[in-house]
Specification:
92% helix; mainly alpha
Length: 24
């Protein structure tokens, strides 16, 4: 499960950052 989380986290972080940039 740890590997799956590590693989998911990097995908979620960039998504949030892109969303913030889009809002700005």
């Amino acid at each position: 499960m740890a590997v799956h989380q590590l693989g998911t986290i990097p995908l979620v972080l960039p998504s949030e950052r892109r969303a913030e940039q889009t809002l700005h």
